[in-house]
């Protein structure tokens, strides 16, 4: 009778451990999902900045073409318009330079985030594998205890 009680307590304890491990697995999966969403958001921002840079490059090319056409016109108009175009060109180059720097920073941040994510993901995978192995061991042990219990009684 005492042995039966001990086995029952042992089974209950192992089942509680199994539930705890399963809850941890769910938490790990949620963390992975959040990391993946974070990387996805970084990727979206990177794509947006890439589009911005392309647009600014096109605007810069158009501004240069405008400046060339204006130079061909009368001298007074050419000088006035060239100054405006040069100012606009300088602003666009400055903005393009800032956006390129920001794009490079975002790429570095994305690469860094991916490295951290991959490291964390591998760690979580390792922990998940270890947890699953522990679960299997506990399930086998519970099965063994139940079988032993059935054989005893």
From TrEMBL:
Could you tell me where this protein is found in the cell?
Answer: Cell projection, Cilium, Flagellum; Cytoplasm, Cytoskeleton, Microtubule organizing center, Centrosome, Centriole; Cytoplasm, Cytoskeleton, Spindle pole
BP terms from Gene Ontology? cell differentiation; regulation of cilium assembly; spermatogenesis
Ordered alphabetically, the record's keywords are: Cell projection, Cilium, Coiled coil, Cytoplasm, Cytoskeleton, Developmental protein, Differentiation, Flagellum, Microtubule, Spermatogenesis
Q: Which InterPro entries match?
A: Odf2-rel
* Membrane-crossing segments per the record: none
The UniProt similarity line reads:
Belongs to the ODF2 family.
Instruction: Report what the protein is called.
Output: Outer dense fiber protein 2
Record organism? Smithornis capensis
